[in-house]
Amino acid sequence: MDKTNKRLVKDVGKLVSLDYEIEIKADNMSEFTIILDGPQDSPYEGGKWKLLVTLPEQYPYKSPSIGFLNKIFHPNIDEASGSVCLDVINQTWSPMYELRNVFEVFLPQLLLYPNPTDPLNGDAANLMMTDKDKYEAKIRSYVKKYGSLDKVGANDEADQEPEEEAKVEDSDGDNSSDPASQLSDTPGVNSDKELSDEDDDMDDSQDDSDK
């Protein structure tokens, strides 16, 4: 085993010893998932995110690839793909850094101190700069909706189901589509009762003429 692979195994082993929840995806430990908790005293507090970590063959001389698997509202994290914009990972990575630095320092600091001038999520960046209260409220709503491990891979389609069901219920209670109702409301078209009354009148007239 070469020096790079030894370093990879060592760094992953440190995360395990620090009680991080890790699931190894590759035999050589080059891909795994890890659980990240939202920092205390922040809008992300109480949230849990599963991250996919991929380590290149050249690790630690090349940086790890990190992506969020459940949604998070943050200026520097792409909402759709979960990719992270962080200089210390993407541009200024050094072999001196360890994986524990990423999850103990770099990512928690990113959640606490976003950089809205270099966003991956323009809506989050704009809201942060224009209305901080609404920005933090939206973060909390995302934490409540997506910030748990059972929401990994969740999308907005499931969130729309209750609304669609409500529309179906409304249509069931509305008789505007009932053909009989439409006929009775149409000018010049008589209801069954009116037709029955007309038939009775015609019978009476016929009887009078016979007499």
UniProtKB/TrEMBL annotation:
Residues 156-175, 195-211 have a biased composition (Acidic residues). Keywords: Acetylation, ATP-binding, Nucleotide-binding, Transferase, Ubl conjugation, Ubl conjugation pathway. Gene3D superfamilies: Ubiquitin Conjugating Enzyme. Residues 1-148 form the UBC core domain. The active site is at 85 (glycyl thioester intermediate). InterPro entries: UBC (IPR000608), UBQ-conjugating_AS (IPR023313), UBQ-conjugating_enzyme/RWD (IPR016135). SMART domains: UBCc (SM00212). Residues 176-189 have a biased composition (Polar residues). Residues 153-211 are annotated as: Disordered. The keyword Transferase applies. One of its GO terms (molecular function) is ATP binding. Accepts ubiquitin from the E1 complex and catalyzes its covalent attachment to other proteins. E2 ubiquitin conjugating enzyme that transfers ubiquitin to MAEA, a core component of the CTLH E3 ubiquitin-protein ligase complex. In vitro catalyzes 'Lys-11'- and 'Lys-48'-linked polyubiquitination. Capable, in vitro, to ubiquitinate histone H2A. Interacts with MAEA and WDR26, components of the CTLH complex that contains GID4, RANBP9 and/or RANBP10, MKLN1, MAEA, RMND5A (or alternatively its paralog RMND5B), GID8, ARMC8, WDR26 and YPEL5. PANTHER family: UBIQUITIN-CONJUGATING ENZYME E2. Belongs to the ubiquitin-conjugating enzyme family. This is Ubiquitin-conjugating enzyme E2 H.
